[in-house]
Amino acid sequence: MYAFRTYDARPANDRGRLRPEDILAANLLSLRLSASDVIPLFAKGEGAPQELLESMNAALSSLREARAFEEYESTNKLDLALTSLKRANEAARKVDGWTSVTVSKVLHRHVPRVVPIIDSRVRRFYGVNKQQDGKLYHQLWEDVRVNAGWLSELAGKYRTSDGRKLSILRVADILIWMRSVDPDAPTVDELTPETWDSAGLKASGWEGSLPLATLDASAVPRMPGVYVVLRESGVAPELLAERPHATARQASSYSESDLRLRWVSGAQVLYIGKAGTSLRNRLRQYRKFGEGTGINHAGGRSIWQLSDADNLTVAWHTLPANYDGLNASAAELGLIRAFREAHSELRPFANLVL
Known about the structure:
The protein is an alpha+beta fold. It has helices at 20-24, 35-42, 48-63, 75-81, 83-92, 100-107, 120-126, 133-146, 148-155, 168-178, 188-191, 198-203, 256-262, 279-291, 328-342; strands spanning 207-211, 225-230, 269-275, 313-318. It comes from Brachybacterium huguangmaarense.
């Protein structure tokens, strides 16, 4: 059930250059690539997107005749064989929405014997961070070499929808994912963006990027989840002495000195919140509080004392009720901690606890 009849089938153009549909096929492994991630790669020009496509095509060309990942006698020989893959990973860093995770899920489908699928769950399994792909390849290589016997036997019991044996790399990836309570649910590490901005959030599967002040609640799912408020302008904000629409029934405004003390220079994310039952209801409450017509979202109200509050956007990530033993509250906590690690232990501007 973990080996898709779709993703694991042989691509229609398995001997040619990548096509747009080959990029979008990676969405079958929990990515959220859209037209904006694909069209620039195939546009005319010599920019970073075109460089990324060329580097992935070069990797395919060099790896199609390569030996299986586990057949290399040493990590040095493995590194040499994966040189083109590493170049593609480096090219991905220059393109918004792309990471080595994206590259792996695009290329593995074409060369499943030699390109490992990587993501935060695999990284966590091997105890490596986002900047240690080389270390991950080495640890995975050692693992499959030690366990090649029974992994190969297991792989031989199953076939893809077009009759091919699963590669040992694919079997290993499936087994790592089967360790989770819910293999389709994100972990806190997967929710955490590599960069705390709109591009980083999008690459980690966050949705939305819609204006909060005029948010149409029907665009937000009725599911538990976490959300963030972003201010994309790099110009220092003008702070207001009072919230423009504050009412007597609502919590008080903060002093300008308090706001100034809590401002995190250079950070786009201003607030991290949670919705235990429904993102739609929670974000509706947040918007109504800013309008002065609601009283149920006093937390995070600092954002309404920015003069450009109408330009702030909100992004969200849905969650199941429980995943890996965590809930929305634990996800919010983990994200705030991750933000603090990336910003010299400073909290997001509108988060006052933790």
